[in-house]
Design goal:
heterotrimer, A: about 575 residues, B: mainly alpha, four-stranded mixed beta sheet, two-stranded antiparallel sheet, 35 helices
Chain lengths: ~575, ~725, ~290
């Protein structure tokens, strides 16, 4: 093949694109004077990622006026905040979106799309607009600047929580990749330092005190709200809730970066795979408390023959074990767990001790709402039907399909591409539609794990727990704040391949980028081709949803939320594949 | 399942690319050869979509190419034709392949571009419309003026008809596809290219109802009733079906059968009345020219009070003694007409009014006497003139009297007026009546009345007193012997056809048995007329044998002694009556030329000034034989300002298409219809007079024809009962056989 | 903590669009009957009903053809999802077939040109119906194989198979020539050559089954590791079978689309010309 003339640029690296260009040495100095930064020991930090470097590149100082919203409940924040000056208010109650001025996703005009379609590059993965040196595109103080008029009026005093100088907040989302749990409004003019999570994580790894501080914070703020959000506890008074919170045990199971050994894990034998999953509650053990899944996914299984049969899976916000507890409380019995709960990947759980439940919770629930008593049979010999009766009906998915979803950790997906092979004529219209919207570069593979006639194609599932975001040095991969779609920002992607490597479903592809002429772009230093991570962006902002789904003539292809079995159940039943 | 070989380093497959690189590692290069590793070799292959695109393009190009080729090729017409034409058109177009389309389609010899422009300009581009081309051939059978208008009739006429019918014709549904001028394309009804046997004229009842909104479900249910059709048509013949059916025929061996008199015309559409000889002669020859027929006085000398005249100093010269007495005697209409030629006489007559008679002369009044004398001399001159040249004289005088010389040329048959009356005959009369006349007039001896008186004395008185016809019955032979035309007649073969030429008859004075003492108390023609009028000519119903023998074979018949015994029918012809000093005429046959001509002449001038008018009307209403014509023939209609005598019957004209058509022929063959009475019922309480033209109030002697009687057969499942089975769409054009 | 994250579960769950719907077809046919009625009324009023049915027909033709356009421009807003288009495509197609029957008056046209036009229409409509059957049937057959491959990648997958097979054979060749012989004499032809046309028409597993059987038969001449190679070879043969089956079936689907679309354009050209002729030679009034 004829060698094309080659274009050279500086290979981008971490901190090529600082969080905010305005950060000056002076600012760093200032931060070093305030807690907790003043307490930190620079020696603990590696010279590759020094504390000052983090403060310089992963932090920025933001100023807010009275009533301005700092973070909105439900947003996907990638950063934690620390109040330098002034006070801020946390609303415990959910605020209506219009009050929060939540903007609908800006969809590109179809004329633009059309124009873009007509003069789409003939060359694969060309990046005409690429600059000599990539730099961070995230503007100082994000686009959002919404004010809350007379917020005292909107927020009742008892629903507000005041935070003042030195307070850390927003850390939870930054660490667990969960949406903001509450809205924070600047009470008066105030100044805050914002740490993006890459930096924040580094600091935590090095600094013990801060880590404990964060934990304490969680118990103080978020836990209350979290418990409140749990249906079972929503009716309780704040006082009771606070007591429960105090007694709640905060546990986490599995590896935070479970995806690293997922591939090798997959190769392992099914039985041993289950065995290797960390047990949260084991069938036959004493039912010692109500388990609340705060984050991640857990497999609900029961012993079957010499192995374990998956009956259901539980996701964020779901509880486990109420049935046993209620049974024991009412019959004063000693029934153990009827089922096992196992961590699939990384799971945060809250364990509310049996005593607390019996003391505060069960008395407040009327008989009718309590789950039925367990059947009077020997544990382990219970009929599957008996098991089933205790479960919510959407759990009644075909076991094979369940196992399939859980084994492949597909339950993580909120926008998984599900193809009904019994209808798919393999016409590849979906791929074409996708390519048509992405400069003729398809962003998924019509191939992937399949169970019977169901195939989960190789398109980004926009996971509830997006492990791909772990370790992105520039934050180029992030969540769209309003939709939760995981998007890679080509302006800031440096092609390190971390995300692609960490995606357990290998739905992120590293591609060699080219300029418009088709000449490969190579790094001026190493001379190796520069790559970028590409994946499905759910046709960000395209009206009417992703093109692939709309392009399927036989509606064989669906983007589906697998975090709960319900949609899939509906679909399979509609497709007549349910027994 | 194609698990990528190198984990996340696999690249997307790009089905959108028109070229695919089939080199294993580089399915993403899109055939551009832009591989990451420059060493790898690219195997570009056209993608499926590229191939499909090419294929589709090829197909389209091929089809288009073929079409264009065909449209430009010679076989174009045959290919574009959507189907074979109906017989007639196909036959017409055999041979001229090139013009096949263009002879009916304006677009036929245009190009594709013209067609397109025509289509987009909604048919404005190609000027000539198909209907116009239709007209190029169908210009005989259709009125070009209204060819494309509904029913081919003038809009105003159609509007009138529409208004007349109580059932409005507001189009329902979509309405007819007419253009702004209210025209319909031929093709909207006549749809071609549906095969050789396709009936182009076929039109469904619903299609008729496109415009005829008042919904006619079927003929038998709610088709409008006939308003006394067809009996509304009056007849120019006074024929009372009732009377014949009920009074006259019963008792005769001949039954009253419609078909005896009514026969089909050539097309079998219309029932014609058989000629007089077949239909009427059997019974009615008598009244027309038989013995029952009366004679028509042409010329007559009046009775004069010669003494009074002489006394008043107005001698009339030579005058038969038999004609002396009080002023009296008829003044025959023709004579008056001929006299009126003399302006002076005309003025005179005008003075005395239209119905002047000699008896109007008052002997005591000197003026009257003077006028009388003038008249007498005029009469004498007329007699002389006629005796010199009859035909030319009459012609001349009539033309003068009616003041339209030349114009009558064509109209009047001059020979016909005096057919068979030769000057010689008139001369003979003159000799017998006024032997001195010629001398008198030539010498002009007005002042020697004495001689005249003397002359007149010599006249044999005995001759007079008996009517000629009776006398002749007495002794034929003598009559024949004295017949001045005997030699002419003898020259004819005995079995010769009945002569239509009337001959002059000399009535012998001797063979007269007087019945009436004073003949001048009433004038014989008038009597005869009265008789004719009062007595119904058919009442007596003469025996057929008599009627048969009454056809004027008179001469031969009368020469045979055996026949002489029979009551001899009076043969027609000119008569000189020496007793009444008159020349009269008797019809020789039906449609007698003489009488017919005189009546025509007369009627032609009904609009003439007073006297002429009177003469004319008199001529027609004459008590004589002409009246007999009126017995059956009605005066009717106005032709060019004149009354016309409709000698022949008027029939439906089936040569022109009308809205409704009917033909007897197909009905005749129906066994149960052969007797016409199935449809034509006599209306017994209708009078005769009213059924005739000119009579004011019309009432047919037939009961109206009811739709029910048609619907008895023409109903669903029976005889055809569609709109177009009785109705024509194209109206007013000549029927093409 | 209640999250405001859009999830697919919030979208209405689709009904089974892939299945053939009698209700829709019934509606289409009823609509066609309505058109017939209209045409009948016009005919009774001396109008040329041909124009009505003709325009309806050509209109539906263009709508049906527009389906392909929609596939090419997937990002246009508000044009509806392809599945809706597909359904409409099917219903309108049946509708047009009924209208077509009325348009030609239930008999073969007489004219040469019109014969071609009608013939083309019948071909396209026929291929459409066949395609309807195909798109319902083939996917299940493909799924039944339990194998998946993208059509465009079949050739390279073939090559890979051959390479893998050869490498297996080569490594066995060092110890025994049984497999090598068998490969050369029987397997090579199957793995390295395309399948016959007969197979494309009526695929059968006879050949591969026989080969696999024979490969198993070889066991009696092979030692443990060699047997394992035999198994792997058999595996490749099975995959080749699946690959060929997919090639045949997916190819059939693609080929059908070739015909269906290819003829469509010809039909459009024809019918447009037909319409122009109908106006130019319509015999109306100017």
């Amino acid at each position: 093949m004829t060698t094309k003339q080659v274009r050279e640029i500086q290979r981008p690296r971490r901190w090529d694109a600082p969080f905010s260009p305005e950060m000056s040495e002076a600012d760093v100095e200032r931060l070093r004077t305030v807690r907790p930064f003043s307490l930190m020991d620079e020696a603990k930090f590696s010279e590759k990622v020094p504390l000052r470097g983090i403060l310089r590149n992963d932090c920025r100082i933001q100023r807010y006026d009275a009533g301005e919203i700092v973070i909105r409940q439900g947003d996907y924040g990638n950063s934690a905040f620390l109040i330098l000056e002034g006070t801020a208010l946390v609303s415990l109650a959910a605020l209506p979106p219009e009050v929060l001025g939540r903007a609908a996703p800006a969809s590109p005009s179809w004329l633009k799309t059309l124009a873009r379609f007509w003069n789409r590059p003939r060359v694969a993965e060309s990046r005409p607009g690429i600059r000599d040196s990539l730099q961070c595109g995230t503007a100082a103080k994000g686009t959002l600047q919404v004010f809350l008029q007379d917020f005292p009026g909107i927020l009742a005093a008892d629903q507000m929580l005041r935070m003042d100088q030195g307070q850390l907040f927003g850390e939870l989302s930054a660490l667990t990749r969960t949406p903001r749990s509450a809205t924070v409004i600047a009470e008066g003019p105030c100044e805050m330092v914002e740490l993006r999570w890459q930096g924040f994580r580094d600091i935590l790894r090095r600094d013990e005190s801060l880590r404990r501080h964060v934990e304490a914070l969680y118990r103080k703020h978020s836990l209350h709200g979290h418990l409140r959000a749990t249906p079972l506890l929503s009716e309780l008074s704040d006082d009771l809730l606070r007591r429960i919170a105090d007694e709640t045990i905060f546990e986490s199971f599995g590896d935070f970066e479970w995806n690293r050994d997922f591939q090798s894990f997959q190769a392992d034998d099914a039985a041993r795979r289950i065995e290797s999953e960390p047990v949260i509650a084991s069938e036959g053990d004493r039912a010692d408390g109500l388990i609340l899944i705060r984050n991640g996914f857990a497999r609900i299984s029961r012993r079957h023959g010499s192995g374990h049969q998956t009956i259901a899976y539980a996701g964020k916000g779901q509880t486990f074990g109420l049935r046993e507890l209620a049974h024991n409380w009412r019959t004063d019995g000693r029934r153990p767990w009827a089922l096992s709960l196992r961590a699939v990947g990384y799971v945060d759980v809250l364990r509310i001790p049996q005593l607390a439940i019996e003391q505060y919770v069960l008395p407040c629930i009327d008989e009718a709402l309590l789950p039925p008593l367990l059947p009077e049979t020997e544990p382990g010999a219970m009929s599957r039907a008996g098991e089933r009766r205790g479960l919510p009906r959407e759990m009644e998915l075909e076991t094979g399909l369940l196992e399939f979803l859980v084994e492949h950790r597909l339950v993580n997906g909120t926008e998984a591409m599900l193809i009904d092979l019994d209808r798919c004529t393999r016409c590849d219209d979906c791929v074409r539609a996708c390519a048509a919207l992405h400069d003729n570069n398809p962003r998924f593979l019509r191939a992937g794990p399949r169970h019977e006639n169901w195939m989960i194609a190789g398109a980004c599932m926009h996971c509830a727990d997006p492990v791909c975001m772990i370790g992105c040095p520039t934050g180029a991969i992030g969540r769209d704040e309003s939709t939760g779609t995981v998007i890679i920002n080509p302006q800031t992607c440096i092609g390190c391949g971390t995300c692609a490597a960490s995606c357990p479903y290998s739905n992120i592809q590293m591609v060699d980028i080219r300029d418009s002429s088709g000449a490969p772009i190579v790094d001026s230093r190493s001379g190796t081709p520069v790559q970028q991570a590409t994946k499905c962006d759910l046709c960000a902002g395209l009206a009417g949803g992703p093109a692939c789904q709309n392009a399927c003539p036989h509606s064989a292809l669906t983007r589906i939320d697998l975090t709960t079995p319900w949609p899939l159940f509906q679909l399979t039943r509609a497709a007549g594949n349910h027994p | 399942m194609n698990v990528p070989r190198d984990g996340n380093k696999r690249s997307w497959n790009r089905p959108n690319d028109l070229w695919q690189c089939s080199a294993d590692e580089h399915s993403s290069c899109g055939g551009t050869g832009l591989h990451a590793a420059e060493t790898a070799n690219c195997l570009p292959q056209p993608s499926l979509r590229l191939r499909r695109g090419a294929f589709a393009l090829a197909c389209t190009a091929l089809v288009t190419g073929i079409l264009v080729a065909l449209l430009c090729g010679p076989a174009r017409n045959d290919l574009l034709s959507p189907g074979p034409l109906a017989h007639a058109h196909a036959r017409m177009l055999v041979g001229n392949g090139a013009r096949k389309c263009s002879s009916c389609h304006g677009a036929g010899d245009h190009t594709l571009t013209d067609w397109i422009r025509d289509a987009v300009s909604s048919g404005r581009h190609i000027a000539v419309s198909q209907s116009q081309l239709c007209m190029d051939c169908h210009n005989q059978s259709l009125l070009q003026q209204f060819a494309l208008l509904p029913h081919n009739v003038a809009p105003e006429r159609l509007a009138a008809i529409t208004a007349a019918s109580s059932r409005g014709t507001v189009p329902m549904g979509l309405g007819a596809p007419v253009n702004e001028r209210g025209e319909l394309a031929c093709a909207s009804c006549h749809r071609e290219h549906h095969g050789t046997d396709f009936n182009l004229a076929a039109l469904t009842d619903q299609q008729c109802q496109t415009c005829h909104a008042s919904h006619i479900h079927s003929f038998e249910t709610n088709h409008p009733d006939f308003h006394d059709w067809p009996v509304v048509r009056t007849s120019s013949i006074r024929f009372d079906h009732n009377a014949h059916a009920l009074k006259h025929f019963p008792g005769k061996e001949a039954s009253f059968d419609c078909r005896a008199c009514h026969v089909n015309d050539a097309r079998g559409n219309v029932k014609l009345v058989a000629p007089f000889e077949i239909s009427c002669a059997k019974c009615h020859s008598g009244q027309v020219y038989g013995e029952e027929s009366s004679s028509w006085t042409f010329f007559q000398l009046p009775m004069l009070d010669t003494a009074a005249l002489a006394g008043a100093g107005h001698p009339v010269g030579d005058w038969p003694a038999a004609c002396e007495g009080d002023f009296d005697g008829a003044f025959p209409a023709p004579m008056k007409l001929l006299l009126a030629a003399d302006p002076e006489v005309l003025a005179l007559l005008n003075r005395y009014g239209p119905d002047f008679q000699w008896s109007d002369i008052d002997p005591a009044n000197p003026e009257h006497l003077a006028d009388a004398a003038r008249l007498v001399w005029a009469v004498k001159r007329l007699l002389l003139a006629l005796s010199v040249s009859t035909q030319s004289e009459i012609r001349e005088r009539i033309e003068r009297a009616l003041g339209e010389s030349g114009t009558l040329e064509s109209a009047v048959d001059w020979e016909g007026l005096v057919l068979g009356l030769s000057p010689a005959d008139v001369a003979e009369a003159r000799q017998r009546w006024l032997p001195e006349l010629q001398k008198e007039l030539t010498l002009d001896l007005h002042d020697t009345p004495g001689e005249k008186a003397a002359g007149t004395l010599a006249f044999d008185n005995a001759v007079f007193g008996r009517p000629a016809r009776l006398a002749r019955k007495q002794d034929d032979d003598s009559v024949l012997a004295e017949n001045p035309l005997a030699r002419l007649l003898n020259g004819e073969p005995d079995t010769g056809p009945p002569t239509t030429t009337p001959e002059v008859r000399h009535v012998d004075a001797g063979s007269d048995t007087g019945t009436v003492r004073n003949p001048y108390t009433e004038s014989p023609p008038v009597v005869g007329n009265e008789e004719l009028l009062t007595e119904n000519p058919l009442a007596s119903g003469a025996p057929l044998s008599e009627i048969a023998s009454s056809i004027p074979v008179t001469v031969t018949a009368s020469r045979d002694p055996a026949v002489a015994k029979l009551p001899d029918p009076a043969p027609g012809g000119w008569y000189r009556n020496d007793r009444w000093f008159s020349i009269s005429y008797k019809a020789t046959r039906h449609e007698d030329p003489v009488l017919k001509n005189w009546i025509d002449v007369a009627l032609r001038h009904a609009d003439a000034p007073a006297v002429r008018a009177s003469t004319a009307s008199l001529l027609v209403a004459d008590a004589g034989a002409t009246g007999a014509c009126l017995e059956c023939h009605a005066v009717s209609g106005i032709e060019g300002g004149h009354d016309a005598f409709r000698w022949s019957l008027q029939y439906r004209d089936t040569s022109v298409r009308e809205f409704t058509r009917f033909s007897h022929a197909p009905h005749d063959i129906q066994s149960d219809l052969t007797d016409c009475t199935r449809c034509h019922q006599l209306n017994n309480d209708a009078g005769l007079a009213s059924a005739v033209e000119g009579a004011g109030e019309f009432a047919s002697d037939f009961a109206p024809l009811l739709r029910a009687s048609c619907a008895a057969c023409h109903r669903k499942g029976g005889a055809p009962s569609g709109c177009v089975d009785c109705h024509n769409y194209h109206v007013g054009s000549k029927v093409v056989e | 903590m209640n999250e405001t994250r859009r999830t697919t579960s919030s979208r209405p769950v689709r009904a089974r669009a892939g299945t053939f719907r009698w209700k829709g077809v019934a509606i289409a046919l009823i609509a066609a009957v309505a058109v017939w009625f209209m045409a009948g009324m016009q005919n009774n009023s001396l109008w040329r009903d041909g124009y009505t049915t003709g325009y309806v027909l050509i209109g539906s033709l263009f709508f049906l053809a527009a389906f392909n356009l929609r596939k090419k421009l997937p990002f246009l807003p508000g044009i509806g999802s392809a599945s809706v288009w597909m359904r409409l495509h099917i219903y309108v197609a049946f509708f047009s077939i009924a209208v077509f029957a009325g348009h030609v008056g239930w008999h073969v046209p007489n004219g040469g040109f019109e014969r071609c036009l009608a013939g083309l229409y019948v071909l396209v409509a026929g291929s459409g119906i066949y395609g309807l059957f195909l798109t319902r049937r083939v996917p299940r057959l493909l799924t039944a194989t339990g194998y998946e491959v993208v059509f465009e990648q079949i050739p390279q997958r073939r090559r890979q198979l051959v390479q893998q097979a050869r490498s297996i054979v080569l490594e066995t060749a060092q110890t025994t020539d049984v497999i090598a012989r068998f490969y050369v004499n029987h397997v090579a032809a199957f793995l390295e050559q395309r399948r016959s046309l007969a197979y494309a028409v009526a695929p059968s597993m006879r050949r591969s089954k026989a080969l696999v059987g024979d490969l198993n038969e070889l066991d009696r001449y092979l030692s443990g590791s060699q047997r394992d190679s035999g198994r792997r070879l058999a595996e490749l043969v099975r995959e080749k079978e699946d690959l060929d089956f997919h090639h045949a079936m997916q190819g059939r689907l693609k080929l059908w689309l070739f015909a269906h679309i290819g003829m469509t354009y010809g039909l459009l050209v024809f019918s447009v010309l037909h319409g122009i002729l109908a106006h130019a030679f319509g015999g109306g009034l100017r």
